């Protein structure tokens, strides 16, 4: 009798996991548009792979002594007359960021997947050396839990960022800025 009960509990657990996995794959981040501006020493190109993935090609012709990233993520409820909701606003000294990121396993795993395992060659060296850097497959996997929580009908997400070079006198030289707009779609 105990074996039968254990068998049904196991079957129920497997069924719940299958349903959970299936529900997670119902959500996808669909890119809608992008724009960017670059500078002569830091050339950027963004290319669509498909509506769920894109790539960037960055040509650095002059070493970036102290690269700084600025990232803002906001949520726009399209059918409501409300201002955008700021979800994240951060500025990161890239060299310090990469030194500290390795201590946080989940973020380090995500960063490795995005920057290295997808065939990308982004350099983590400081200063950022002259070279051509490719991020080949920028996307959020459809089985990621975050998409389920981001899903909201008629909602647009904006990812706005910039890359700077901090000068010895602490002023910032803008190398590029970009904006990517996307929405989360539910397919089941």
Commentary on this structure:
A hairpin with a 2-residue loop joins strand 2 and strand 3. The protein has one domain (35-183): Ganglioside M2 Activator Protein, Chain: A (Distorted Sandwich), CATH 2.70.220. The protein is of the alpha+beta class. The chain is globular. It has four helices and eight strands; from the N terminus they run H-E-E-E-E-E-H-H-E-H-E-E. It has helices at residues 2-24, 94-101, 105-117, 145-150, and strands spanning 27-37, 42-50, 53-60, 67-77, 85-93, 131-138, 155-166, 172-186. The strands form two sheets. The chain has a five-stranded antiparallel sheet.
Query: Might you state the CATH topology name?
Result: Ganglioside M2 Activator Protein, Chain: A
CATH architecture: Distorted Sandwich
> How many strands, what sense, and barrel or not for the largest sheet?
5 strands, antiparallel
Which secondary-structure class do the elements indicate?
Answer: alpha+beta
Percentage of helical residues? 25-40%
> Measured on Cα atoms, how large is the radius of gyration?
20 Å
Number of strands: 8
Total count of helical runs of at least 4 residues: 4
Mean pLDDT: 81
Q: N- to C-terminal separation?
A: 38 Å
Q: Helix and strand string, N-terminal first?
A: HEEEEEHHEHEE
Q: Are there runs of 5+ residues with pLDDT below 50, and where? A: 1-23
Widest sheet, order of strands: 1-8-7-4-5
**What top-tier CATH class fits best?**
Mainly Beta
Shape: globular
**Integer tally of domains:** 1
Strand content: 35-45%
């Amino acid at each position: 009798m105990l074996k039968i009960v254990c068998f049904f509990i196991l079957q129920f657990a497997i069924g719940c996991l299958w349903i959970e996995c299936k529900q997670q794959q119902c959500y996808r981040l669909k890119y809608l548009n992008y724009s960017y501006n670059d500078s002569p020493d830091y050339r950027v190109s963004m290319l669509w792979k498909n509506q769920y993935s894109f790539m960037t090609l960055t040509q650095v012709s002059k070493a970036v002594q102290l690269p700084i990233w600025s990232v803002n993520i906001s949520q726009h409820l399209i059918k409501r007359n409300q201002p955008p909701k700021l979800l994240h606003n951060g500025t990161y000294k890239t060299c310090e960021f990469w030194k500290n990121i390795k201590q946080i396993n989940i973020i380090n795993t995500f960063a490795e997947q995005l920057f290295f395992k997808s065939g990308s060659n982004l350099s983590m060296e400081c200063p950022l050396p002259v070279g051509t850097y490719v991020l080949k497959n920028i996307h959020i996997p459809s089985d990621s839990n975050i998409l389920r929580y981001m899903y909201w009908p008629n909602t647009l997400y904006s990812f706005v960022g910039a890359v700077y070079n901090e000068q010895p006198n602490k002023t910032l030289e803008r190398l590029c800025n970009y904006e990517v707009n996307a929405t989360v779609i539910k397919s089941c």
